[in-house]
């Protein structure tokens, strides 16, 4: 895992884990390290997503604030879907390309 000191200027961060418990633990470790440096995670801008075929609801919290679970997440300009596909990104690019072809740039 990358430490907070290695990401001193990071503002788009993704933390991944295979199990809910591991994700919660990793997030708590990050949060504790950030607090030592007088930094904090913006809960209002944080979301969580389960990726896979057998998706279940999970409860991830930062400072007793539960994160919203989403079906689609935009990370560094790429739309990631709950099923693990990037179909939404492909559709977005196709729409932009067609828009430029017909004179409606987006």
Write the layout of secondary structure elements.
Layout lengths: L19 H17 L10 E2 L12 E2 L2 E2 L1 E2 L2 E4 L2 E4 L5 H15 L5
Parallel strand pairs: 1-4
Antiparallel strand pairs: 2-3, 5-6
Report on this structure.
This protein is of the alpha+beta class. It folds into two domains: 70 residues, no CATH class; 36 residues, no CATH class. Helix content is 30%, strand content 15%. The strands form three sheets. Strands 1-4 form a two-stranded parallel ribbon. A two-stranded antiparallel sheet has the order 2-3. A hairpin with a 2-residue loop joins β5 and β6. The chain is globular. This is Reverse transcriptase domain-containing protein. It comes from Acanthoscelides obtectus (Bean weevil).
Features:
single chain, Reverse transcriptase domain-containing protein, 106 residues, 15% strand, two-stranded parallel sheet, two-stranded antiparallel ribbon, globular, alpha+beta
Briefly summarize what is shown.
The protein has 2 helices and 6 strands; from the N terminus they run H-E-E-E-E-E-E-H. It is α+β, with helices and mostly antiparallel strands.
């Amino acid at each position: 895992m990358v430490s907070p000191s290695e990401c001193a200027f990071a503002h788009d961060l993704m933390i991944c884990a295979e199990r809910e418990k591991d994700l919660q633990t990793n997030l708590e470790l990050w949060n504790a390290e950030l607090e030592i440096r007088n930094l904090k995670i913006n809960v209002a801008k944080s979301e969580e997503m389960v990726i896979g075929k057998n998706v279940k609801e999970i409860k991830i919290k930062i400072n007793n604030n539960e994160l919203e679970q989403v079906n689609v997440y935009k990370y560094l300009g790429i739309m990631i879907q709950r099923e693990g596909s990037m179909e939404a990104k492909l559709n977005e690019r196709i729409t932009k390309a067609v828009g430029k072809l017909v004179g409606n740039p987006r």
